[in-house]
Amino acid sequence: MINLYSGTGRLPPPSVPLGTYDHLKTKALAPPKVGEDEFDNHVSDAAQYGRAEFWDDRYSTEVEPFEWYYEYSYFSPIIRDLVPLDAKVFIAGCGTSLFPQDMVNDGYQNITAFDISRVAIATQKLRCQDRYPQITWLQGNIVDTDLPEGSFDVIIDKALLDALMCASMGEVSAKLYRIEADRLLKSDGLFIVITFGNPEIRLPLLEQNDLDVEYFTPWKTTVQAVMKPKQYPNEVLDPDDPDSLYFIYCLRKIPELVKAKLVKERKLIIKKNKKVARGTKRSSNL
Ligand SMILES: C[S@@+](CC[C@H](N)C(=O)[O-])C[C@H]1O[C@@H](n2cnc3c(N)ncnc32)[C@H](O)[C@@H]1O
Hints:
Blueprint: E1 2-7, H1 22-25, H2 36-41, H3 52-61, H4 72-82, E2 88-92, H5 99-105, E3 110-115, H6 118-128, E4 135-139, E5 152-158, H7 160-166, H8 170-184, E6 185-195, H9 199-206, E7 219-227, E8 245-253, H10 255-285
Parallel strand pairs: 2-3, 2-5, 3-4, 5-6
Antiparallel strand pairs: 1-7, 6-8, 7-8
Helix pairs in contact: 3-6, 7-8
The structure holds S-adenosylmethionine (SAM).
């Protein structure tokens, strides 16, 4: 594991591998263990990754569990390190991945698995039957859930943010998602994002560090990277090449920052109310 960054600023750390990452912005998600041809087949689908109908269609024809990037066991040392077994965990965009079930098999007791695709959620429920009472399956849109605020200790995203960013209006969805994640997390909650996106392209989506601007993110970010597993024995992977890495963003809410955000928001509301009151007074004097 490579530790890349620890801070609350937007700039990528000096230790981020050198090179330009622009090519990653347009790259489609790579499904696991496939050759380059198969990877290319997914490129044309990428623009659809924000649409529920696309995912419903896809999961209707692909009935077997499908794991983007790699399965839970590959990331579990990091997850186990960060997430206590009794945490209330929300898995955003679970798809038909076995990540929720694998977490339960690893000892986690309270998992909510969420996806926009009705088909994915129905498939998961059918597959689990009564075997995983620790998992609640929910269908919905991550940019606007009906769940109460402060519901979870941890949110885990594997490849959902990447999917949103492939779709049109990706940055808008990512911003709404970030705001919703903050709302859903407790005041010391943790948002974990597993992605192919390096800090230069992902940190600006995940952080808003200016308290004077709307939707300040009250978290401190650390970034780790792990080497992708080899897809074939002779494959050469380079730790300085972002194409060889998965990045794991850990966005930890800090209660003091949450408090500062609340104070700021209250001040803004008072300011707005005063302005409205002045306007009303002025018009009644006319
Ligand atoms: C790339 S797949 C990742 C699936 C799974 N996390 C994995 O690692 O295998 C992205 C998933 O996000 C879901 N998704 C896309 N947009 C969403 C949204 N707005 N709200 C909730 N889920 C969404 C899709 O249905 C799909 O299952």
